[in-house]
Amino acid sequence: MAGSSFGNIFRVTTWGESHGPALGVVVDGCPAGLTLQEEDIQRYLDRRRPGQSKITTARSEADQVEILSGIFEGRTTGTPISLLVRNTSQISRDYSEIASCYRPGHADYSYDQKYGFRDYRGGGRSSGRETIGRVAAGAIACKILGQLGIEVCAYTRSIGPISIDPSRFEAAAISETRTAMPDRDADTQAVAYLEEAIKRLDSVGGVMECRATGVPAGIGDPVFRKLDALLAQAVMSIGAVKAVEIGDGTTVTTRYGSENNDNFCIKQGQVAKTTNHAGGILGGISDGSDILIRAHVKPTPSIYASQQTVDQSGQEISLQIKGRHDPIIVPRAVVVLECMTAITLLDALLSNLCCRMDSLEAFYRKPELLRK
Amino acid sequence: MAGSSFGNIFRVTTWGESHGPALGVVVDGCPAGLTLQEEDIQRYLDRRRPGQSKITTARSEADQVEILSGIFEGRTTGTPISLLVRNTSQISRDYSEIASCYRPGHADYSYDQKYGFRDYRGGGRSSGRETIGRVAAGAIACKILGQLGIEVCAYTRSIGPISIDPSRFEAAAISETRTAMPDRDADTQAVAYLEEAIKRLDSVGGVMECRATGVPAGIGDPVFRKLDALLAQAVMSIGAVKAVEIGDGTTVTTRYGSENNDNFCIKQGQVAKTTNHAGGILGGISDGSDILIRAHVKPTPSIYASQQTVDQSGQEISLQIKGRHDPIIVPRAVVVLECMTAITLLDALLSNLCCRMDSLEAFYRKPELLRK
Amino acid sequence: MAGSSFGNIFRVTTWGESHGPALGVVVDGCPAGLTLQEEDIQRYLDRRRPGQSKITTARSEADQVEILSGIFEGRTTGTPISLLVRNTSQISRDYSEIASCYRPGHADYSYDQKYGFRDYRGGGRSSGRETIGRVAAGAIACKILGQLGIEVCAYTRSIGPISIDPSRFEAAAISETRTAMPDRDADTQAVAYLEEAIKRLDSVGGVMECRATGVPAGIGDPVFRKLDALLAQAVMSIGAVKAVEIGDGTTVTTRYGSENNDNFCIKQGQVAKTTNHAGGILGGISDGSDILIRAHVKPTPSIYASQQTVDQSGQEISLQIKGRHDPIIVPRAVVVLECMTAITLLDALLSNLCCRMDSLEAFYRKPELLRK
Amino acid sequence: MAGSSFGNIFRVTTWGESHGPALGVVVDGCPAGLTLQEEDIQRYLDRRRPGQSKITTARSEADQVEILSGIFEGRTTGTPISLLVRNTSQISRDYSEIASCYRPGHADYSYDQKYGFRDYRGGGRSSGRETIGRVAAGAIACKILGQLGIEVCAYTRSIGPISIDPSRFEAAAISETRTAMPDRDADTQAVAYLEEAIKRLDSVGGVMECRATGVPAGIGDPVFRKLDALLAQAVMSIGAVKAVEIGDGTTVTTRYGSENNDNFCIKQGQVAKTTNHAGGILGGISDGSDILIRAHVKPTPSIYASQQTVDQSGQEISLQIKGRHDPIIVPRAVVVLECMTAITLLDALLSNLCCRMDSLEAFYRKPELLRK
User: Fold this and answer.
1) Which terminus in chain C has less CB density within 10 A, N or C?
2) Where are the beta strands (DSSP E) in D38-197?
3) Do A1 and B356 meet the contact criterion of CB atoms below 8 Å apart?
4) Using one digit for the tens of pLDDT, what is the confidence trace for C218-235?
5) CB of C41 within 8 A of CB of C60?
6) Would you call B355 an interface residue with chain A, using a CB distance cutoff of 8 Å?
């Protein structure tokens, strides 16, 4: 079944494997008239690029994006935008070891069971490089959201036991720290923690968080396409994510209703909420407050320490993984979270144009109101 | 946008409001030849029926299901199954109070912002009664899964601070306790906790959990239709759910990779895992272990205590909600979690038939192998 | 696979069989705020109702529609609209004859091959009564289009060899003639032709045509969702249709390009075309001219004359069909064509709101422009 | 709206413009384990390649395909297959003339109305080069169908007034004649007719036909996803097609039911039909006979003769189109028809695996039956 597409109006279709010739994405349904160039996309790809510090994989890829369609004279035409990134640093080595065995925590066994065989080179389609297409498409979504006054910002909230202190939140630190933490003290501690884990040939997990500000109230749909439900799909679909929370998330279960309800109030003549336990979504539809989502990421399954597993012939074996791996997934995945959030929000914003008779009538009765 | 459908092959479309004439569901794509009668569905609806104990709403609805199509001589025909439940206990009272104000924690404000107005009677489409269609469809999915040797079982894991003790897990207790807890001691404590909350005119939250056993390895699709991603959408789309976990969920973030990876081993000649931190899904595809999912549910937003809010004219007001409400959502939502899990699994199982050339060739070259 | 849904934003899901308890439709994605009552829908259902003259089946059904959801205080709420029509005139007779044999021209054999068995009563899901759901949904689409200044009008163009004379086109005659022909002379001849066929225990075919006026230029999408491609699917999906034409259709193949191209010109200060061979669609997108579509309908496969066929045990047999059948499908199918055209156009019009950055920005930057 | 995808399980997403850097397609949902290499695809692309004779455009493109993903060790992995064709012969000339005016019969005006502007170079996305992606994907579908014993074959049936004589049908001639006619006499006449049209600076239309043999009975779905309805969408979506017929198509309307019904009989112990007026589809589901579909194609809208039209400033002007154009679309579009038919059939065949409980149970109870 076709599982590589996401979104209904702004539809993203990704493709590519870790060690194939290239990876990419087709973005169909992008509104016409957006100014777009390769730099807009490259900026986001650079944030997930490997080889940038000692806490990321040693694989070095330029990850240069090429726009192959959908742009004319610097603007989107409304037709599909095809984006391509060539793989250049696939190391041509002997994969026979992982070819015939199942790495713990990886998709090797489940892919084999599904498809009968698998592209084992670097994890194939299940590699983290699959997210290149997501980030390239998300860069476009972020640009559009920006023009609507919506900002989406993701960062690392914790690494292992080390969490940021929200009172020290510093946005600039997200791009400047190696951990993508908005708190330089926490970053320092987290790097030490990571270095310790690397020495132990081990890996660690963490939590990433994403905040969307400026989302108008009324976005999302009832029942199965609730905004939080689509965000949950979008975020849980990122490899290694094992839990997704909206707003106060798991902590709501031990509260009383009187504590957890956000009271409405009037601020500057507008309806607002005194608190935002709900994370900006009520009944699956945005309420005008910040949207807050958290993703819990497991430790990188590839570790250098020896592990017990089985091979394809059914023998129990001891495995020592070689290759180049990140000791933690979170810092490079933060931009993926940001991009998946942006794609989901944009698709819901586009859907929302069609939900009222008054909008529909105005659009077709007085199109000049809406046309430059 | 059409948000009331879920599933690609086994597609469920629900409809109906809390105080409209009826609610229901159309199940399209159900395989032909399944023995099905109203009792199969009624049994599940009865588990979510209100009015069954003092810890649920006083609204009493028989919730009798009627099959309107798709069945011939006791078997499904492969064409859409339409299921209908009439509302009978809508109390015809004065709704003017909530008609003009925004209840904290509810979808009133966000619906108004989206649609320009709303059906305020009992919450309209955002009511918990919306789940009748999900449960009716899920009953069919559960029956099919059962015939494939797959059991899906959901229960209450905690209510407020009171959790079950897994070592005392007793399946029979799920249907016999008022809390749907598989632990009678925890149930006793939880009921006391709930009664205290009711006295305080307040409400409480909790955690529900669902386990699917017998799911073969290889189910689910890479990237956006990962099995855990679709489960996350399915479960987060249940009203009041604020967090979703797969397997060990949030706890993985403080582990090392060497602790969190499940080693593969051979058990009774089959590939198995020594642990199941992953919750039965690796790379978005089932690995043959039990699938485990948890949903964190907020306290019922409707409480009898007075709350501060605003009305449609922009005035801050004090609101005291009347009507009939559950002091906790969890016990009646457990069957909804079970049903959404079953629908998601069945859809993925059906998709999976199409993913290999050898299956496709066998099916068309030797159809007699597959036909009774 | 779920084949009972149509449309992406305005999504229609039909259900029901000829001799089941009821038939119906769920319309999801209807814009909020449309004034709608049962009479709006009943008016369209009455046009396809059987038992109205001697050239239609003797089965008499009131086909009274009931609205079960999605309307509050006389307006659509934006949530799914569920519409129900009870079957009342199923004659409880012995179906054993057609139960065990394959009627020529019918879906009996192909359904058996697909599903392993079938609901043979009155054709089950493949009955013409399946169109009740289409017409009920189409009535809503027509009402919305009407409020946008778009009129959709279908009629009978020919019955057997008897065609209307376009120079005598009289719109009032469509609803007043038994044939739904907009030409009373052609109607008289066609009725005589039909009566002759009835005497011979035979049936006849015909052509129906649909014109949509007022469709703005720019509706439809490139490539696979071209407006004419979606219209072709919509119309070919009506039972018994064997060919679909847009504009001048089949006649274009013997023309030169210089004859077939429609020249652009300026009329009343607007871009227009001097001719409309294209039927209002260029490159899959509306050009502002009338949209014209034709459907070629085969003779009713149920005839009273004896036919050669086979039974389920593989014996060749002679079959004489009993029951109540229309000697021609066209007059009652005209409203189905109109409704399918309207649903397709409306879905494309809704999609179109999302295709430009300037509309998107205006919508979110100045929502007051679009809100009553 | 995303209009560049087709198919539900075997999902094809095309992208690219006439004068952009490249065109391509992503094929998601292709079953794993198919042997596939670039030659399999190139063979089909070569059939639509321009510059092959004096009756096709002078634009010469190698149209070399590159496989970028989804293949490992010569076999499909079940993950998306990305195919790329670079544009190499875009002539960099002055497009200012057509940039500012609306060519008759082309999509210039409708695109401008939809998107606010357009990529006017060579027609942009509305160019016939868009079909490269369809053909590349269709080559894969054809290969799979071939392995199931299904052959799909399209050819030219008529050019202007010159039709093939079915009694002289010679399959080899399809690839050997310049017209793709399976009748060398008709080809000779048609070439003469075409040369005359070229001299007159004009263009001509024609009819193409496609036959699928070996399709088992039972393929397709009721109501909106009828096999003929999806074929109609698929075929009408090919640029310049103005009518689609199934089986005897338009001719059925003047027949009596007794003439048009295909009687069932027993041939070699199997259910068969004595005739095939229905074109292999009854009730939207295949009946085991050959599937026959015809597409009526308008004359190429680009002609060298002078035409009247308007420009973007609203002036009526006289236009003489330059550039390189086919005087007829049909011979190069035949392979597109074949490919769209194959994609539609394959998607329906895949869907069909999921429609019966007995198949589902066999698949999961005895997977070894279906696995090599």
Assistant:
1) C
2) 65-67, 71-72, 75-76, 81-86, 151-159, 162-163
3) no
4) 999 999 999 999 999 999
5) no
6) yes
